[in-house]
User: What shape does this take?
Amino acid sequence: MAESSSNSGGFLGVLLRVPPLPQAIGIMAHAGDVLLLFFETIQRLLSALFSPGTTVGMPLIIGQIVRVGVRSILIVSLVSGAVGVILAMQLAQPLDDFGQRNEVSRVIGEAVLRELGPLIGAIVLTGFAGAAIAAELGTMKVSEEIEALEAHAINPVRYLVVPRVTATVLSMSVLGIYSDVVALAGGYGISVTLLDIPGRVYIANLLAQVSVMDFMTGAFKGMVFGLLIGLIACRNGLNVEGGAEGVGNATTRTVVECVVAIVIADLLFTAVFYALEMF
Assistant: This one.
């Protein structure tokens, strides 16, 4: 009996155990590094924009936008369109029980504009941008290219981080809106062709439900998600150690950390917006 109690206690201990102090300190230190990189990136960006004799590196930013943003359009289209179709088909039956099938677009519009649009774009961009940036900067760190930049008095944050973070923020802002449009279009297509909902009814109910605030909420979330992806990827890439294995570890860690950070940020935004709407 004592043994059973001990095992039960051990099991509950595993479930309820808080992270050990060193692990908690490591998480806080990691978050602090990302925050410091954010402030330095803002400083370098403002310096390049407003200080004479410095440049913001527009060709580098445009190149990164094409690389991490434009190339993500196809996969965002596929995923967002599929999500719009899935939502419409899954909602049709429950709404039929209340005789409200025509209200499908109301639910889709609210869910997509506030949550799913920017979230889908961010998850896709994590795979395209986050992993690629971490691997690229990690390879440069291992091959001592970053040390070579510093030897030539070129600041790595200004030359490497600012263009990439700026590109992820701008790309995510556009991809979030694009994801909204594609998901709503997917819901429209399946509603008209399969669910027998008139197109004008779908659009009328959608416009009656959503507001400019819903759109602005999703757009703001998209910008924050892009900022998180860029900062976490750059931080992990610049801190790579251990050769090729370290590059692989940094890439994997970047994807995991970006997804966790995005979901937590989305949760915080949802809680804040919910509290504001209650007043």
In short: Residues 59-278 form one domain. Residues 104-142 form the longest helix (39 residues). The radius of gyration is 23 Å. Residues 161 and 234 are 6 Å apart (CA to CA).
